[in-house]
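TL;DR need structure tokens for one chain.
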Amino acid sequence: MRKILAILCFVGSHSIFAQPSADSLASAKTARPKPVPEKNELKYNLNESGSHFFKVTFLNQTWLRLNQSNPGTTVVGDAKDQTFDIGLRRTRIQLFGQLNDRVLVYFQFGMNNFNFLNASPAFNTTGTVSNRKVQAFFHDALAEYLVFKDRDYLKIGGGLTIVNGLSRFSQPGVSSILSMDVPVFAQATVDQTDEFARKLSLYARGQVGRFDYRVAISDPFPIQTNGAAPPALGPNANFALKGHTKQFQGLLLYQFFDKESNQTPGYMTGTYLGKKKIVNLEAGFISQRNAVWHTGATATDTVYQNLNLWSVAAFLDMPVNRAKGSAVSAYLGYFNLDYGKNYLRYNGIMNPASGTTQSVGGLGGTQGNAFPMFGTGSVIYSQVGYLFRQDLLGSNGTLMPYAQAQLGNYDRVNRSMGVYNVGLNWLIKGHNSKITLDYQNRPYYIALPATGQLDAQGRRGQLVLQYQVFI
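>> reply
TL;DR here they are.
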């Protein structure tokens, strides 16, 4: 009997302790679900694996700028020694997708260089009608076919595209650039015979082993359609107003370590922020027959010349300390540029000035922040940046200082031209939320009466604060 009572007591006590309490039942009912991982892209999967998808991105770069004006600068008719302006350097929407195993489509829509002077086609003081609301346009619109399934050996595409030759900076992925802005001289025909570096092209690209290549046949736009009055035929070369020939271009890279992304057509990453180990050598070219003209022995004698541009460069972007997230990025390139006899063109990025009272050798657009950006001769371009550890500022991100230099030796300029930038990136959330402070120092020129050659007379500076948001 005692044994039976002992067994009953043991069973009862066990059932009491095994019974869940009311509190534990309540907490189980109110338990929170596991948190859903935070999304960092706007992407719609077209199949279960996500290999077929459609994706949307948004980019906006806002500038606050203080600029020391080139001599003679005027702004809406008033002389200005310096200017302060607010502008949108780039506002873009990308839409692209892998529709099936072989077909990719890519579109980009947006606008560039939109400040208080911006209008269409350009600001003017002559009373000609213009419209500041006509600005956004399609930058890219193309389709691409993967020839060998599951292999990046060969992709054939066509449409309006930035797939270019010459260099990686001729087709930059602007959301990920190291410095505040790209070296625009590398977009060699920008807004002359292309649409903001894009051309109507048939191209092939791919990766075979450690080689990355792209070649294209492009159909250039006539310079008469770029929205500005074309320069008159004269003794110095300019893009020809007669004739139309195709443009041929190509770029070849050898990748020593990690391979760069080959997904989106053309666009090449500025810096991977230590997420890849990249060491590349590259060589590229652009060529077009009878692209430019100038007068010969007499004013009625027209001479046509070919456009021939080529470059060689090295690019490095790799982690320094993977555990801390520090990294280094660097680029060094040599550009040999033949636009024809004494070709020279000024350009000022989102120029804050509308005119000038001082002519520089008959060249246009010399006011504001402009300098001789494009010309027959050669350019050495370099940039370097260092990414500090990822937790440098705690939850507020990290810093990445940089420096860049463009050294131009142009036939029409008396001495080497140096344009220098130093800056600091505050990477709040990588490239998705980034503040950049950039200072640029550039030369200004006069034309010597006897020869028409440009001679440096001094230097000017520009300070820009940029905020970039990229989704």
